[in-house]
Amino acid sequence: MVKPIGLHVHSGRANGQVEDYIRSVKPSVMKWLADGVEPRLVDLAKVYGALTILRVYEPNQALGNPQEKDFLALVESAIQRYPQFDAHEGYNEAFQRLPEVRRRAEFDIALMELCERHGKRAVIGSFSVGQPQWPQTGQPDDWAGYLPALQRASAKGHYVGLHEYGAPAMQWGVGANQAANLVNGQWINIDPVTRPGVQGWFVLRYRRVLAHWRELGLDPLPRIVITESGIDDIQPRPNVGTRRGYKTYRDTPWWRHPILGDYADQLGWVCDRWAEDPEVVGGVDFGFADISGDWDDFDLSTDAETLARVKGVMRDLEEPVPVDPSPPVTPGQPAPINQAALKARYRPRIIGAGETLWQIAGSQWRDVLIARPMGDPGSIPAGTILMVPESED
Questions:
Q1: What is the pLDDT of residue 35?
Q2: CA distance 152 to 150
Q3: pTM summary value
Q4: Which of 167, 231, 174 has its CA nearest to residue 198?
Q5: Could you give the count of Cα atoms lying within 13 Å of 376 in the half-sphere of its Cβ?
Q6: Which strands, in side-by-side order, build the sheet including 385-389?
Q7: What is the separation of C-alpha 393 from the centre of its chain, rounded to a whole number of angstroms?
């Protein structure tokens, strides 16, 4: 199953680009910060099958009360305000090591309980690149301290969020691309790391994490979402000077590398790896439509050339959708929806003010499906998402 990368949307500044990206790419995951939500775009992402995630930004994350209680109240308010989201994040890149990670597990269990009361899923953890640690990394077993949260996520169907970045390319730290193999600080002997099962310490670290979860006795394993990814100032890495997001490599050989490609190629590479692992839902590229000024190095919305390249690479990941025979139907039960056939035959379309079904679909207007909201098809409000047959007259 292909898993095109989604966007980590910071604001509503570039909603036109977000809509175009969703329609063009059909991403596996889309994530928004709460201040940047346009509900119809969340609905659109869901029509295309994306897992939709909301994060409430809290600059002063703290364990204990009243801080935990206050933050969970903000999450509950966001769930009620934006009911279309599938899943909700908690604290971000915080309390990742022993002994605090034990208390973090208690907080994340409370987050999961809150989401369950509203029929939603939680994205717990949201741990930073290279965290938590365990004995294979030469450190105490932080994951063992966090195990109660993992167990509940496994039992209740919640997700674990991990952040994975590379530098100067996303393949750094994967396979043979390690600090021990540098030549005078330079990354010369490059492993393309396209073989199945290859593991990493930054990107593709999740594969090592999954193996350790099995050692801890987790069965089934919680599903993973890469809730931030890209290029960042990770350490250790080759000697490339002071650089951070992908844009800071524009004047270097890493901008279009002869083996690893450009940034779009590298995102395509990691999506191919995600597709090899059923435990991974997919992931998002960090920093889209930033308005703080802190993340422009990462922001695809201000780099039309690279954004177009990313969309092209993501579209090339797509495979023809097999239209399988419908599964057998038990007498007296409604036939299950054949999702593959639906995607092959229909495309999403948002109805505009004053438009009629005949204007949208011609003689096939009777075959149009109303995806959201459900209601009287004789009076469809503007903004409704329709599923329109591909072969129009």
A1: 87
A2: 5
A3: 0.81
A4: 174
A5: 2
A6: 346-350, 385-389, 369-372
A7: 37
Is-contact 9 31, C-beta < 8 A? yes
280-288 and 159-166 strand pairing:
unpaired
Q: How far is CA 340 from CA 21, 320, 367, in A?
A: 21, 10, 17
Q: How far is CA 78 from the centre of its chain?
A: 19
Instruction: Using pLDDT thresholds of 50, 70 and 90, give the confidence band for residue 346.
Output: low
Residue 371 amino acid letter: A
HSE-CB at 320 with a 13 A cutoff on CA atoms is: 3
Is residue 211 within 8 A of residue 217, CB to CB? The reply is no
DSSP state of 325: P
Q: Which of 162, 292, 159, 133 is CA-nearest to residue 228?
A: 162
In degrees, to the nearest 5, what angle opens at C-alpha 386 toward C-alphas 389 and 304? Answer: 90
User: Rounded distance, CA 312 to CA 294, Å?
Assistant: 27
Task: Give the pLDDT band (50/70/90) at residue 1.
Answer: confident
Residues 172/173/176/181 CA torsion (nearest 10 deg): 90
Q: Hey, what amino acid is at 251?
A: D
How far is residue 382's CA from residue 366's CA, in Å, rounded to a whole number? 18
- For residue 137 the two structure tokens come to 């990394």
The per-residue pLDDT for range 254-305, each reduced to its tens digit, is 999 999 999 999 999 999 999 999 999 999 999 999 999 899 999 999 999 9
Going through the chain in order, the beta strands assigned E by DSSP cover 6-9, 29-33, 51-55, 87-89, 121-127, 159-166, 223-231, 280-288, 346-350, 369-372, 385-389
How many Cα atoms sit within 13 Å of 214 on the Cβ side? 6
| Integer Cα distance of 377 and 357 in angstroms | 9
In this predicted structure, the answer to whether residue 202 has a pLDDT above a threshold of 60 is: yes
When comparing pLDDT for 324 and 129, which is higher? 129
Neighbours of 363 (CB within 10 A): 9
pLDDT for the residue numbered 89? 98
How far is Cα 178 from Cα 158, in angstroms, rounded to an integer? 33
- Across residues 48-61, what is the average pLDDT? 96
Mean pLDDT score across all residues of the chain: 89
pLDDT of 328 > 80? The answer is: no
d(CA 77, CA 71): 10
